[in-house]
Amino acid sequence: MNSFFTNLLAVCGIEYLIIDENFKILEMSLGLNHFADILNEVKLGQDVRIVFPELEGLEDIFDAILQGEQDNFELKGIMRSQDTASPLYIDIRITNNLQEDHSRNRLTIVVEDATERMVLEQSLFQGANEANLLLRNLKASKQYIDQIVTSMADALLVTTLSGEIKKMNYAAQILLQYNEIELIGQPIAKVIGEANKYPLIIDDIDISHSQDINFLVKEVETVCYTKSGKTIPIAFSSSIVKTEIEHFQGYVYILRDMTERKQAELAKQEFLAMISHEVRTPIASVIGMAGLLQYTELTAEQQDFVETIYTSGNSLLKIINDFLDFSKIQSGNLELEEEPFALRNCIHETLYLLAPTAREKGLKLTFLDSPQLPTTIVGDITRLRQVLINLISNAIKFTETGSIEVSVIIRKNSDINHSAANPDEIQFSIKDTGIGIPRDRLERLFKAFSQVNSSITRQYGGTGLGLAICKQLCELMGGRIWVETELNAGSTFYFTIAASVIPEESAGASVVFSQQEIPKAIESPKVEQLAFRSQELLSVPPSPDLYKLRILLTEDNLVNQKIALKQLKSLGYSADIANNGKEALQLLEKIPYDLILMDCQMPMLDGLETTKQIHRWPESSFASGRRPVVIAMTANAMKQDKQMCLDAGMDDYLSKPVMKENLAATLEYWGNVIFKAKETATTEQTVSTTDVGSVELPIDWERLHQLSENNLEFELELLQIFVEDIQPRLEAIKIAIADCNFDQLAIQVHQIKGSSANIGVTTMHLAAEKLEQLAINQERRGTINLIVELENFIKRIQEFLIMSK
Ligand code: ADP
Question: Which residues have CB under 8 Å from 492's CB, separation 6+?
Answer without folding.
Answer: 429, 430, 431, 432, 483, 484, 485
